[in-house]
């Protein structure tokens, strides 16, 4: 990235985004919190997830973690006592936490369902024509540019709609990094809730995947959470209805932007928690995968044991009732 592009991207940051990130990553006088206000309940995940405190993967699906019913802070049982981030329920509006952020109803469509305009690959002349049409509709300097190899570059805007907190490295004290792990074995991190109206412009290539967009956003904000915790969604408005679709890891957001045009109502990008997507198991090592299978086996055996005990107790009570009854 050139220095001019860097200055341009810096100036595009919203005031609120700059304030939130600066306070979280640079201000050593952050208000001290005690992890108050949470209402944690046992959580059974349809998909495995990551702990918002230590950042480690939560192994197992059956009541292996806790989640605040208000702010959705998710953590291991062992991490509950170490939480210092207060619940965000009282800070934001009730509408935001209830998911009512639009007058229109949002409909999640199929993950693999792509819009008609991007189902077919474009030829180089078609791309060149669309780039010209796109730039003709731009009122700013966020143009797209063709490259000699047939690829093109441009800007996309990504809005953050995160219900759970994000984490940055622990601050340094006296020039020494106080990161690493506490005596309890939990990594030291600084967590905060990102404002839901925060957004970021990225200068990317037509070859940049949605997974690379997520990784670039986390890197720019020095967020240390696992990229698998997040997913990139496309949002569109049609016939007074809002449609939201999760992009696959290999989709090209800039190509979607080019085919849809610059109108944000036709297409916009949102980053949210990856609560509905499949976990990329190929990213884990063989020992981790074997450990996961062992945990699932133990959970299955425990679950079967509980069911057998419940039915055995019911059978015993019915037999006692039958033995105590008189004929006729």
UniProtKB/TrEMBL annotation:
<dbReference type="InterPro" id="IPR011524">
    <property type="entry name" value="SARAH_dom"/>
</dbReference>
<dbReference type="InterPro" id="IPR000159">
    <property type="entry name" value="RA_dom"/>
</dbReference>
<feature type="domain" description="SARAH">
    <location>
        <begin position="278"/>
        <end position="325"/>
    </location>
</feature>
<keyword id="KW-0493">Microtubule</keyword>
<dbReference type="InterPro" id="IPR029071">
    <property type="entry name" value="Ubiquitin-like_domsf"/>
</dbReference>
<dbReference type="GO" id="GO:0007265">
    <property type="term" value="P:Ras protein signal transduction"/>
</dbReference>
<dbReference type="Pfam" id="PF00788">
    <property type="entry name" value="RA"/>
</dbReference>
<keyword id="KW-0963">Cytoplasm</keyword>
<dbReference type="GO" id="GO:0005634">
    <property type="term" value="C:nucleus"/>
</dbReference>
<keyword id="KW-0479">Metal-binding</keyword>
<keyword id="KW-0206">Cytoskeleton</keyword>
<keyword id="KW-0863">Zinc-finger</keyword>
<dbReference type="InterPro" id="IPR020454">
    <property type="entry name" value="DAG/PE-bd"/>
</dbReference>
<feature type="domain" description="Phorbol-ester/DAG-type">
    <location>
        <begin position="37"/>
        <end position="87"/>
    </location>
</feature>
<feature type="region of interest" description="Disordered">
    <location>
        <begin position="20"/>
        <end position="40"/>
    </location>
</feature>
<keyword id="KW-0862">Zinc</keyword>
<feature type="domain" description="Ras-associating">
    <location>
        <begin position="186"/>
        <end position="276"/>
    </location>
</feature>
<dbReference type="Pfam" id="PF16517">
    <property type="entry name" value="Nore1-SARAH"/>
</dbReference>
<dbReference type="InterPro" id="IPR046349">
    <property type="entry name" value="C1-like_sf"/>
</dbReference>
<dbReference type="GO" id="GO:0008270">
    <property type="term" value="F:zinc ion binding"/>
</dbReference>
<dbReference type="Pfam" id="PF00130">
    <property type="entry name" value="C1_1"/>
</dbReference>
<keyword id="KW-0597">Phosphoprotein</keyword>
<dbReference type="InterPro" id="IPR033614">
    <property type="entry name" value="RASSF1-6"/>
</dbReference>
<dbReference type="GO" id="GO:0005874">
    <property type="term" value="C:microtubule"/>
</dbReference>
<dbReference type="InterPro" id="IPR002219">
    <property type="entry name" value="PKC_DAG/PE"/>
</dbReference>
<protein>
    <submittedName>
        <fullName>Ras association domain family member 1</fullName>
    </submittedName>
</protein>
């Amino acid at each position: 990235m050139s220095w001019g592009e860097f200055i341009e991207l810096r100036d595009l940051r919203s005031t609120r985004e700059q304030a939130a990130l600066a306070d979280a990553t640079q201000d050593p006088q952050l208000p001290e919190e005690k992890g108050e206000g949470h209402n944690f309940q046992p959580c059974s995940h349809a998909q495995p997830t990551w702990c918002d405190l230590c950042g480690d993967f939560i192994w197992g699906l059956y009541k292996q973690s806790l989640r605040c019913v208000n702010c959705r802070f998710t953590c291991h049982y062992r991490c509950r006592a170490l939480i210092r981030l207060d619940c965000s329920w009282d800070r934001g509006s009730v509408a935001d936490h209830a998911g009512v952020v639009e007058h229109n109803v949002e409909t999640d469509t199929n993950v693999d369902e792509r819009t008609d305009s991007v189902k077919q690959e474009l030829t180089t002349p078609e791309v060149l024509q669309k780039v010209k049409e796109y730039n003709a509709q731009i009122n700013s300097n966020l143009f797209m540019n063709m490259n000699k190899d047939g690829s093109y570059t441009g800007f996309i805007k990504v809005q953050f709609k995160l219900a759970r907190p994000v984490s940055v490295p622990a601050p340094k004290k006296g020039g020494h990094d106080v990161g690493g792990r506490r005596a309890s074995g939990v990594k030291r991190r600084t967590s905060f809730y990102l404002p839901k109206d925060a957004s970021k412009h990225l200068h990317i290539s037509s070859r940049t995947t949605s997974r690379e967009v997520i990784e670039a956003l986390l890197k720019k904000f020095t967020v240390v959470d696992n990229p698998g915790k997040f997913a990139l969604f496309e949002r569109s408005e049609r016939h007074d209805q809002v449609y939201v679709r999760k992009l696959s890891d290999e989709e090209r957001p800039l190509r979607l932007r080019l085919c849809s045009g610059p109108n944000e109502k036709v297409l916009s990008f949102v980053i949210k928690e990856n609560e509905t997507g499949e976990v990329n198991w190929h990213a884990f090592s063989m020992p981790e995968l074997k450990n996961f299978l062992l945990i699932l086996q133990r959970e299955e055996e425990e679950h079967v044991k509980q069911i057998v005990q419940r039915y055995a107790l019911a059978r015993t009570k019915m037999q006692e009732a039958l033995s105590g009854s008189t004929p006729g």
